[in-house]
Amino acid sequence: MSYEAEKITKLDLKSSKKKSKKEKYDSFWNGIFYFCLGISAFGIILMVINVNRFRSKLISLNPDYRFPQYSDFLTCIPCMAFISIIKYCTQKYLIKICEKVMKKSYRFPKNEKDRELGKKYRIKLPSHAYKFSIYLFLTVIGYPILKDLDFYPKSLLGKGVLANMFKDGYPKSFYLNKPPLFDFYYMFCLSYFASDFFWLLKDDKQTDFINMLLHHICTISLIVFSHLVNYSNVGSIVLILHMESDIFVHSTRFLLQTDFPEFIKNISGITLVFNFLYVRVYVLGDIIRVLYVYITWKGVIDWFLIIFLSIIYLMHINWAIMLLQKMFALCFGTKLYDTREYKLSSDKKSKKI
User: 22, 80, 140, 189: most buried, per Cβ within 10 A?
Assistant: First the structure.
């Protein structure tokens, strides 16, 4: 090999090793999320150590109040069984319907990549349909339960003010007068996220696996510990705003892998962007602000509940940036596509060649 040819080969190898802007962006955020995973593990340990002390103090100050019990979590067992049955039935009976609307390039693949994606989306489309249905269900039943609470905010079509959850000060703010089915709704949401966490670990890993792993760990921790110390007033609002927003997330992700007209996909995507920015960036950001201003700051539990919520908010900022990038690209005539991708064996083969 000549010197020039060898030099060109080395330059090609060097350029191939350089990360693209997207890879650098993903690496940056993954580094942050790995750090947050460490904080989350540390926070869970500290909260486990301190939760009984926090609870005991509140129970002693008002022994007549029916404070949340560890036995409440037994409700999750039948709920998780019910959710698993629904998921199984959805996967089994919707798969044929989803195959008919799936992209033609996946149904009749002309290359290895489309063949692999077809196999994955054959399973994933019913999953999106299932998640769309359960988020719609949890929003529809959750809103009537929560809407009349004096702290359910107008920004989520309520009549109250967020700061009202702390208006009575410590410790009275912890003795929430809960409406009927409030605790059941809270436990059902926990059951869903616990079930989804299991499927997250079991299913094929997507490029945002670390994000979703961190999201589920923080969400489950927030629900469990907020219930035990009766911070479920805050938790109920955070839960329902996530449920409402995820309706648009999964309807859009479903449509993007089908042969529905592009204008329908674009309308769904644009609706998702505006809803996500309003609900998960503006409203959730306002909840964190109110918490920071009015929270009792009585110990480790307070600190780590707001830290976990802030980690979830940080992930929303990342997702919001990606959604805005897609919307910006759409304005210049680029087709929408899913922000999440699969690691394909065909990609590995092409890199080896």
Answer: 189
